[in-house]
Backbone:
C-alpha cells in the first residue's frame, strides 16, 4: 500500500489522495503526485544516433540530409553544429547553425563530433 505524505505546507498527517492530487483538509493545500515523483527523478538522458550520451555545449555532426521547414534549402550531411543545448520535447537539441540560424534537431539525426 502506498503511504500518503504529510502536507508540505502545515505538516498535517490527515492528507488524502483525490485523483492526481493530494489534499490537506486542515489548510486546504493541494499538490500533485507528479511533484512528489519529480523530486527523486534524474535529468533525461539524450543519446545520439550511435548511443553516445550528449551534454550541453557538445559539438555534433548531422548524419543525414535534413529538409529545413519553411526554407527551400536542406541541411547537408556532415554539417558540424557547435555548442548544442538540450531541451525537453520531440526535437531535443536547440542550436544555431551558420547560414540557417536557430534550429531544433532530433538527437537521432546527429552524432557526437
Residues:
Amino acid at each position: 500500500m502506498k503511504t500518503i505524505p504529510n502536507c508540505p505546507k502545515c505538516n498535517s498527517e490527515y492528507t488524502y489522495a483525490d485523483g492526481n492530487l493530494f489534499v490537506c483538509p486542515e489548510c486546504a493545500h493541494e499538490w500533485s503526485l507528479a511533484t512528489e515523483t519529480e523530486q527523486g527523478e534524474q535529468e533525461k538522458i539524450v543519446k545520439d544516433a550511435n548511443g553516445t550520451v550528449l551534454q550541453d555545449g557538445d559539438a555534433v555532426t548531422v548524419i543525414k540530409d535534413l529538409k529545413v521547414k519553411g526554407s527551400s534549402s536542406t541541411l547537408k550531411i556532415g554539417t558540424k553544429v557547435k555548442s548544442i543545448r538540450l531541451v525537453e520535447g520531440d526535437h531535443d537539441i536547440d542550436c544555431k547553425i551558420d547560414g540557417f540560424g536557430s534550429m531544433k534537431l532530433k538527437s537521432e539525426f546527429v552524432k557526437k563530433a
About this structure: The chain has one helix and 13 strands.
